[in-house]
Amino acid sequence: MTKANNFQRIRELNYLQQAVLAAAIIERMLPNYGLFSEATGFGDESALRNALNVCWEKLLLPKSKISLEKQIEKVEPNVPELAEFDMFGTYPAIDAATALLGLMHGLMAKDEQEFISIAKISQATVARYVEFILLNEDIEPDNKLVRDHPVMQYEIEVLSELIDFVENMGRIGSDNVKELKQLAIADGQTNIGLAI
């Protein structure tokens, strides 16, 4: 599976498929925020968790009167500032919050570009993490080393599996959404391989 291949496949999904895929990807990213929050005492993970739950609800009940604006207002103050934290975990935390805000903006504006961006943000988080690992091992990271690293290969594989599932979902309802959410976190780890 080449990287372009996954993104091309996401572009070929319909709006709703792209949206549920994006939400599933965020399920894998969000625990990174929780780990950061635990380590630093910054931010309210439950505000992000609730916002993601609301997005799932909105996907299943598009006509519901759920206010995504209110959720955005609750999430925004919880996005950490890079300059205020001297630790690697700040990056995946920011990426998780950014992806979640992107999902809500995408749902409000019916903009599928936002959903495609979420897969790219997740992969960028993994790339940054792999660079961090390599630098700690005194290896100068380059694109090939990052792409071939087992953590990145695994991210690409998981994304491919999630796309397979979404392609075959048929009508999107609460049962197959529940299955998709389970699949996203079935391996018990975040997108950068931290235990959930």
Molecular structure report:
The mean pLDDT is 96. The protein has 9 helices and no strands. It has a single domain, classed as YP_001051499.1 fold like (Up-down Bundle), CATH 1.20.1590. It is 72% helix and 0% strand. It has helices at 3-12, 15-40, 45-60, 68-75, 90-109, 112-136, 143-148, 150-167, 174-185. With 196 residues, it is mainly α.
- Main β sheet profile: none
Number of E strands: 0
Please work out how many helical segments DSSP would assign.
Answer: 9
Question: Under CATH, the topology is which?
Answer: YP_001051499.1 fold like
What would you call the shape?
A: globular
Radius of gyration: 16 Å
From the helix content, strand content and strand pairing, which structural class follows?
mainly alpha
Q: Would you state the CATH class?
A: Mainly Alpha
Alpha-carbon distance between the two ends? 26 Å
Number of domains: 1
What average pLDDT do the residues reach?
A: 96
Order of helices and strands: HHHHHHHHH
Uncertain segments are: none
CATH evolutionary superfamily? YP_001051499.1 domain like
Strand content: under 5%
Q: What's the CATH architecture name?
A: Up-down Bundle
Q: Main traits of this protein?
A:
196 residues; mainly alpha; YP_001051499.1 fold like; 72% helix; YP001051499.1-like_dom_sf; DUF416 domain-containing protein; DUF416
Question: SSE layout and pairings?
Answer:
Blueprint: H1 3-12, H2 15-40, H3 45-60, H4 68-75, H5 90-109, H6 112-136, H7 143-148, H8 150-167, H9 174-185
